[in-house]
Specification:
Layout: E1 32-34, H1 41-44, H2 48-61, H3 78-84, E2 87-91, H4 100-119, E3 127-131, H5 136-156, E4 159-164, E5 188-193, H6 199-204, H7 209-224, H8 228-241
Parallel strand pairs: 2-3
Antiparallel strand pairs: 1-2, 3-5, 4-5
Length: about 240
């Protein structure tokens, strides 16, 4: 499955198209901005799930309280993105009978939107959260298949993506072994740009390494290949992909 990108979402939310479902398309609302401290429609996108997700991202994903370790927050960039107004949020309504290709086309459309938006935003690390309202069980196989299909396009744009959900019975995706946190209010998909600190992730995720190398090889050689083990893994990955070490 190789989805073609949809046009960029308009500035305002897309109105429902009665023929979209018959054509196998999904209504893809334009993302809204989450800002730290907002409340009401301006801060949550005007949906019940959005009203839950904004504090979830701020107080759970972006908070470090009660978590051991030097970098305690699940994602250390969330708070900064919220403060800078570069954390985006959208909801994509998927049913169990929705074709994975339709979901993939929608995700590629969001990827194109995010790529353009993130390149004109602040130095803070921007992100896009796409939540999937509804019972997770029928949605997850469809969304997971779409996620796998669009990963090459994600990496080609210099981004990375992860799917998070609450179903511990689902095995981790071997192609993208980031952990998933089982207290999410709904399944959600995260897009962000690949950054220099993603070295270890890129060494674990074979598909991601060429994009990391293209974007951050000079930085990695200068500051991040400090140990013999890291240098050996880097050189091995370069050999596997036919890239200069």
């Amino acid at each position: 499955m190789s989805p073609e990108p949809d046009p960029e979402p308009p500035a305002e939310s897309v109105t429902s198209d009665p023929g979209a479902a018959r054509r196998g398309e999904l209504v893809r609302p334009a993302p809204v901005v989450f800002r730290d401290g907002d409340s009401g429609d301006d801060g949550d996108g005007g949906t019940e799930l959005g009203a839950v997700f904004r504090p979830y991202l701020r107080d759970y994903i972006g908070d470090s309280i009660g978590r051991p370790g030097p970098s305690n927050a699940i994602c250390p960039f969330v708070r900064g993105a919220l403060r800078a107004g570069v954390m985006h949020y959208a909801e994509l309504r998927v049913a169990g009978h929705t074709a994975p290709r339709a979901v993939a086309r929608a995700l590629v459309g969001y990827l194109a939107w995010f790529d353009r938006a993130s390149q004109r935003e602040s130095p803070e690390h921007p992100g896009l959260v796409v939540a999937f309202p509804g019972p997770p069980a029928p949605l997850l196989p469809v969304v997971a298949a779409a996620h796998r299909a669009v990963l090459p396009a994600v990496y080609a744009r210099g981004c990375t993506a992860a799917l998070f959900h609450e179903d511990p019975a689902e095995p981790d995706d071997a192609h993208h072994p980031e952990p998933r946190y089982f207290t999410a209010p709904a399944p959600f998909y995260v897009l962000r740009r690949i950054i220099p600190a993603d070295l270890q992730l890129s060494l674990r995720v074979r598909q991601m390494f060429p994009a990391y190398h293209r974007l951050h090889a000079a930085e990695a050689r200068r500051t991040r290949l400090r140990t013999k083990e890291a240098a050996e893994r880097w050189n091995q990955a370069c050999r596997e992909h036919g890239l200069p070490p």
